[in-house]
Amino acid sequence: MREINNKTFLTLTVFFLFYLYIKNIYLLDFLYFHDMTMVFIFLVGIVAAIWVTGRLDKWLATKRWKNQIMLISSALLILFFSYQMFTPYFYTDNQLREIGVGKVEDYLQLYSDENMAEMERSKLAKATLVEGLVFANSIADQYPKVEVIENVKIIDFIRSFHQFELVVNGELADAVNNQERRTYRFTLEKEGLGYKISGFTHY
C-alpha cells in the first residue's frame, strides 16, 4: 500500500509540474524556435519535473508523516486534474452563460470603444483573453477582427471537457436600422480564477 501511495504521488507530481511548465511555455514563442528545438524544450521540461519530484521525495523521506502527506497531496492533485479537465461541469448552465456573455461583451468592447486608452485596452484584453492569445496579439500588435454586434443573445451552449462554447447572435452596431445580424461561436476556457476567450469563429 505504501509503495502504491508513493508511486501515485510521484507520478501525479511529475504531471503537475509538467502541466505548469506547458501552461507557461507560450512565453518562449517570441523566439520562433524550430520544431526540433521545441521538442528539446519539452524534454527539458519533463526531465526538470522528474528531478524536482525526486528532490521532493527525498525531502519527504526525512519527515515523520511522509505517507499521510503523500496521500493527502495525491487526493488534492487528483481533484485538481479532475477540475482542470472537466471545469465546465463544476458550474451550472446559468453561471456559464452569464460568464460567457460578459466575456463576449468585453471582447467586443475592444473594438467598439475607439477612444479607449492603450493601457486600458491592454488591461481589458488580459482580463478577457487567454494569456497565449494576448501574447500572440501583442506581437502582431492587433487583435483578431470581429464585427461589433449589439443586443447579444445566446442561441447555443456546449460543454466540452475543460472548455465550453457559446454561440451568440446580435445586431450589427453600424448597420442601417440594425437589420443585419451576425453569429459567432466563442470558445472559453478556465485560466487562473476565471474563464477567458481562447478563440472564436464567424458564421
Question: What features would you describe in this structure?
Answer:
It is a single chain. The chain has helices spanning about 1-25, 35-60, 65-85, 95-110, 120-130, 130-140; strands at about 150-160, 165-170, 180-190, 195-200. It is of the alpha+beta class and about 200 residues long. It folds into two domains: about 1-85, no CATH class; about 90-200, Nuclear Transport Factor 2, Chain: A (Roll). The chain has a four-stranded antiparallel sheet with strand order 1-2-3-4. Helix 1 (about 1-25) packs antiparallel against helix 2. The radius of gyration is 22 Å and the shape is elongated. The protein starts with a helix and ends with a strand. The mean pLDDT is about 80.
Q: Layout of SSEs?
A:
Blueprint: H1 2-23, H2 35-60, H3 66-85, H4 93-112, H5 118-128, H6 131-140, E1 149-160, E2 163-172, E3 181-191, E4 194-202
Antiparallel strand pairs: 1-2, 2-3, 3-4
Helix pairs in contact: 1-2, 1-3, 4-5
Write a brief caption for the model.
It is built from six helices and four strands. It has 203 residues and is α+β, with helices and mostly antiparallel strands.
Broad shape: elongated
- Structural domains: how many: 2
Q: Architecture of the largest domain in CATH? A: Roll
- The strand line-up of the biggest sheet is 1-2-3-4
> What assembly state would you assign to the polypeptide chains in this entry?
single chain
Mean pLDDT: 81
Number of helices: 6
Q: How many beta strands in the DSSP annotation?
A: 4
Distance between the termini: 55 Å
Binned strand content: 15-25%
